[in-house]
Automatic annotation (TrEMBL):
GO molecular function, one term: mRNA binding
Record-linked HAMAP family: Ribosomal_uS3_B
The name this protein goes by in its record: Small ribosomal subunit protein uS3
Organism: Candidatus Zambryskibacteria bacterium RIFCSPLOWO2_12_FULL_39_16
Protein encoded by which gene: rpsC
Gene3D superfamilies referenced in this protein's UniProt entry, alphabetically: 3.30.300.20, Ribosomal protein S3, C-terminal domain
GO cellular component terms listed in the entry, alphabetical order: cytosolic small ribosomal subunit
Length: 224
């Protein structure tokens, strides 16, 4: 029997790198891991609506760095950097509240995603935004698939939404696919994301797969 695996975790060490990068002796491992999970969950709620693609954490002996990839960097940075100052203060306060280590110097890097439609997480958030605005779910998924597939580097797109939609009383699953999605090929550069849209009748789960071609040994580059 086949097993369902996460497309990102399935390719770790082959064409993907870990989203938390640090080295620690055994006594601090549990503390660091707990801190990374709590901070990522906090930033997911704190930066909702900013179209964040990914959040990565790097630790060194003196520096604690958070790297945020977003298609709306201006929303996070704010005017004259006011948003960054407030975000940094909120993260430090959150770490103190949950008894996380604050000895290292906190640095926040914001990177702009230049092609948001080819990012699975941003595409999922765009679909969720359309559904929360009461737009027809078939139109939303079709439009998003066409926008994503219009990019040159995208060779396949698949979007699946599940939940109570279209005014029905029963949950259903709708899928829209264009191109190829070779999930079993480890060298295939597949971006995957899961997101939830909050509607009055309940949550709608959104899954997005975007295939961007294969990565071979001669041009292999580990992508975050």
């Amino acid at each position: 029997m086949t097993h369902t695996v996460h497309p990102y975790a399935h390719r770790l060490g082959i064409i993907r790198d870990w989203k938390s990068r640090w080295f620690s002796v055994k006594p601090k491992y549990k503390e660091n891991l707990r801190g990374d999970v709590l901070i990522m969950e906090y930033l997911k709620k704190r930066l909702k609506g900013c179209f964040v693609n990914s959040t990565e954490i790097e630790r060194s002996a003196k520096t604690f760095r958070i790297i945020i990839e977003t298609s709306r960097p201006g929303f996070i940075i704010g005017r004259s950097g006011e948003g960054m100052i407030k975000l940094r203060g909120d993260i430090i306060a959150f770490m103190k509240k949950h008894d996380l280590s604050t000895k290292e110097e906190l640095k926040i890097d914001v990177k702009e995603v230049k092609s948001p439609e080819s990012s699975a997480m941003i595409a999922a958030q765009m679909v969720a935004e359309g559904l929360e605005k009461r737009m027809p779910f078939r139109r939303v998924t079709k439009t998003m698939v066409e926008k994503a597939f219009a990019n040159r580097d995208v060779k396949g797109v698949k979007i699946t939404i599940s939940g109570i939609m279209g005014g029905s009383n029963m949950a259903r699953i709708e899928t829209k696919k264009v191109g190829r999605i070779p999930l079993q090929t480890l060298r295939a550069d597949i971006d995957y994301a899961f997101y939830e849209a909050l509607l009055p009748l309940g949550k709608i789960g959104i899954k997005v797969w975007i295939y961007k071609g294969d990565i071979f040994n001669k041009d292999k580059s580990v992508k975050p």
